[in-house]
Backbone:
């Protein structure tokens, strides 16, 4: 079974940026193919990766919901909604050379995300045996954790900035996982956007107060901000980028690169 790595944290701490760079690092280290999952209704992992998905799970949900009502959405005659959905699910995965991207997306207008959340869960479970690594960018906050969208996660990476609020949010997510009896083999914190790569004593104190294991720090880099302003995919950062280097060192410490990846066949190729 593939390793499921879930990345969580409060909004605005840069977890999607780190998620994209982690996917890139795994691919460059020979751990491909990777399945990247954007499980945030406000999807933007594709922008970090520089990929444009054909459709999202949320858009597929709209097709099924409006079939027979809206002439733009028609299910072939004689086909059930479930059969049509199964046929279309492969279209919700953007295929790249080293990784594939599945995007949750959002429903239109009012409505619950339960159906789309369920699709994310079932698809990850279905595809887990076809990829050595599945990296999931969760939505900000605790929604996916409380709903049990990813109960099979093997590694839970919590991301915070240097603020106490960010570390406290990560601590609450870690506590919720314990309350729900999730048992990832590894749970730890990455502090992102650290000035000069050195944590303040107050931030370190809050990390200890929350009982979190610090996996490492990623320094602040103006180049990341500039790439975002220019609309450039973050994964195009130069290889000597301090952000890329720091994340690579963290991954090495976790020991993933010491594991042998067996031959894996994509389910839809």
Residues:
């Amino acid at each position: 079974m593939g390793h499921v790595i879930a990345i969580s944290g409060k909004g605005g701490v840069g977890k999607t940026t780190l998620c994209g760079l982690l996917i890139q690092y795994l691919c460059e280290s020979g751990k491909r193919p990777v399945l990247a999952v954007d499980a945030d209704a406000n999807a933007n992992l594709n922008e970090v990766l520089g990929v444009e998905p054909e459709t999202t799970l949320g858009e597929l949900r709209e097709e099924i919901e409006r079939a027979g009502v809206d002439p733009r959405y028609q299910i072939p005659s004689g086909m059930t909604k479930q059969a049509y959905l199964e046929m279309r699910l492969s279209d919700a995965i953007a295929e790249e050379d080293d990784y594939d991207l599945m995007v949750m997306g959002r429903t239109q207008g009012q409505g619950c995300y339960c159906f789309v959340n369920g699709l994310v869960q079932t698809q990850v479970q279905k595809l887990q045996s076809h990829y050595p690594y599945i990296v999931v960018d969760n939505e900000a906050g605790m929604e996916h954790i409380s709903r049990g969208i990813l109960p099979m996660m093997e590694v839970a990476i919590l991301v915070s900035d240097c603020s106490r609020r960010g570390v406290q949010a990560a601590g609450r997510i870690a506590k919720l996982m314990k309350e729900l009896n999730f048992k990832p083999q590894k749970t730890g914190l990455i502090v992102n956007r650290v000035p000069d790569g050195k944590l303040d004593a107050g931030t370190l104190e809050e990390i200890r107060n929350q009982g979190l294991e610090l996996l490492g720090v990623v320094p602040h880099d103006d180049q990341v901000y500039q790439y975002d302003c220019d609309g450039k995919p973050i994964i195009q950062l130069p290889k000597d980028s301090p952000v890329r280097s720091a994340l690579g060192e963290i991954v090495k410490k976790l020991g993933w690169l010491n594991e042998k990846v067996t031959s894996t066949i994509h389910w839809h190729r």
About this structure: The chain has ten helices and eight strands. The CA atoms of residues 76 and 84 lie 8 Å apart. The radius of gyration is 19 Å.
